[in-house]
Amino acid sequence: MRKNKLPQFFVFLSVCTFLAIFFFVVQQSYNNLIRATAEVQSSPLIRSVSPDLEIDVLDEIEKRQEIIQ
Q: What are the transmembrane regions (predicted)?
């Protein structure tokens, strides 16, 4: 009786394919993590708050019209 065995080449090919996909997923995950960190560090919306009182800003707020509902 003859057993159906996978040839060693197909086993080797499947292991190599699995490793390639695994490393691709790990690399993409790492790049997404690093890119998100770099975007946060270079974001212009994040800036330090000045403790000095800015009169110009207060004047602009006073000039706004109030919305009454």
A: 6-26
Residue type, 13: L
What pTM was computed for the model?
Answer: 0.49
Q: How is residue 42 written in tokens? A: 């270079």
CA distance 28 to 20: 12
Q: What domain count does the chain have?
A: 1
One-letter amino acid for residue 32 of the chain: N
Q: What is the pLDDT along the chain (69 residues), one digit of tens a residue?
A: 566 677 888 999 999 999 999 999 999 999 998 887 766 666 666 667 777 777 888 888 888 877 776
The answer to the question of residue 69 being in a domain is no
